[in-house]
Write the structure tokens for this entry.
Amino acid sequence: MSFSNDVRYELTRVMPEKDCCRKAELSALLASSARWVEAGDGSDLIVQADNAATARKIYKLLKDVYGLQAAVSSETKKYFGKNHIYEVSAHIDTENEWIQQELMPFPRALGKPVASSLLGKSCCKRAYLRGTFLSRGFVNRPEGDYHLELTFNDEHLAAEVQKLLARFELHAHVFERKNSTVVYIKESEKIADFLRVVGASNALLEFENVRIIKSMRNNVNRQVNCETANLAKTIDASLRQTDLIEALIARGGMESLPSNLRELAMLRIEYPDNSLQELGEMLQVPLSKSGVAYRMRKLERLAEEWMDSVDS
Ligand SMILES: [Zn+2]
């Protein structure tokens, strides 16, 4: 199962305790995936869901909040690559029309895509975001690129949800994709915050674990790169030194050097892979790393001077 499906599955099992939150979440689940069809002495509410767990949650919320007895059916069809479509339908009598008013106050006509009466409290805002993710959310697995998105077929609803996210310091961006408006978050910390806000605790744990491992791996890579660079510098220096010393020997210039520099020159040739510190420890009178570095610079300078004087 994909990480996104894990999150959704986990969210289908989070059942709000308070009625206010249940209504808010139900309203989000219904927003733009529900339709009302006139039937007999009232109307039928028909909601589509793309998985059984979400359909069950809608079924349960309708029952718990409004005492409605819904029916669930599934249909197999090709729909955005998914094979099953679930439909939850419930009949609402004329005397219960207020339910429709409460959940979907004819959003377009009022110019308001969300019933603000449902979103007064922070707990309800969280519930609304949970329902929104359930019905139109996607989050990439944390091992890949960080990406969470909510896709809407109504730009006003998208804008409303963007505002809702901002109330939790989740600043989302928006772009248009074909006929949809996509609200998305790219920052890993913010995606973790979103999972926390909607109550996907297990998914959050997994997300954070992978995030930690990834950042540790980045640190290790940086360290290895750094060590590799230092090693390359050491090897370059050693090659330069051994070339110079061998040229000096070939041209009979070794005797021009003081004995302490000759000793270091011979060690350099004999141990080309050793660090200056290691060479320092091998000297008859051992020297510290900086002491050897100083002596090596002097050796290089004198050797070059001697070669220049011979050449000219
Ligand atoms: Zn609430």
